[in-house]
């Protein structure tokens, strides 16, 4: 696993750090006889800063991690795939391609868009220059691939060629807590990690969520500043907090209908001022059932505050809180266990999700974008369909797990496991 001190991450944010990438982008060939115009990638060649590309540590027989230097922003990645079944994730386990089957004797090409970033904040859209206050060591070690100068691909099933080029495209920015953020290792996952899989290569998904955080943390650590500094007119920002905000009630320094709504409003106004479209998302429920097997509510006040804020501010609203209960109820007391992380046989995490649960919630978010009739819904993959009352059965779920595993529970929400 890569370990990057904060000072090094900040140094990588300078323009000179991107000199290794050709202006027109990269064209890599992993075969023994590279095609004309492609850069040959020697087998198992480690990443080298002077060269600007190479394999990362942690490769297995099933998956390889390949990185290339890129400028901050959106890049289109086109992969040429040979016979077999292929799944590709980017940065910290963001699902880009799922089980692409290529018949014997054939090749196919697929294109997807990845957003990359550094901690540096540019002075733009009324935001002052500075840096994001990253969490150490979580974001500088376990999640360093989200903040370095490289695009990192987690490739299952191999790839013959990879082409990478910068693109200017609309972006969906995500801001939230551990249920949204890129979780660094199995068995944890979030809907933010699964969301890119459901969009065509005409749009990017930029996940700025972080474990253990609230709207207040977003302001203090300048995460919303980072997003606003990059916003282009028409970009969408999905805002989902609530789980960790409950701790402010216990501490006597906040509540859903006071500070939570005020801080949410501040985010909405900042996004609007920069020309973006804010979308309020209520927090999904934890896994709780009563004695009769009915899904229970634990975030009612925060869901109500989110709904009220969206109505008052006249912004789109996705009621993930209500939809999640429909999903859990459909799965049932026992079936819903598969939707949540199981870091040990006797330690089911009833707050944080498994790949399966995160996948279902990502589909619920896509439904919400469709229902709100947002322009970004035009970029949803063809054939998408999801009924929360009849969720995809677990025995048909086949997203391959990542090699990286952690026993470390995501930050926050300690009192509500």
TrEMBL record:
What stretches pass through the bilayer?
none
Q: Name one Pfam family in it.
A: Lipase_GDSL_2
In its keyword annotation, does this UniProt entry include Cell inner membrane?
no
Q: Which InterPro entries match?
A: Galactose-bd-like_sf (IPR008979), RhgT-like (IPR037459), SGNH_hydro (IPR013830), SGNH_hydro_sf (IPR036514)
Which superkingdom, per the lineage? Bacteria
| rRNA processing in keyword set | no
Q: Which residues form the SGNH hydrolase-type esterase domain?
A: 174-323
Keywords, ordered alphabetically: Hydrolase, Signal
The secretion signal range is: 1-19
Q: Name one GO molecular function term.
A: hydrolase activity, acting on ester bonds
SUPFAM superfamilies recorded for this chain? Galactose-binding domain-like, SGNH hydrolase
What family is this?
Answer: Belongs to the 'GDSL' lipolytic enzyme family.
User: Which PANTHER family has this protein been placed in?
Assistant: PUTATIVE (AFU_ORTHOLOGUE AFUA_2G17250)-RELATED, RHAMNOGALACTURONAN ACETYLESTERASE
Q: What is the protein name stated in its UniProt record?
A: SGNH hydrolase-type esterase domain-containing protein
Q: Which organism is it from?
A: Pseudoduganella dura
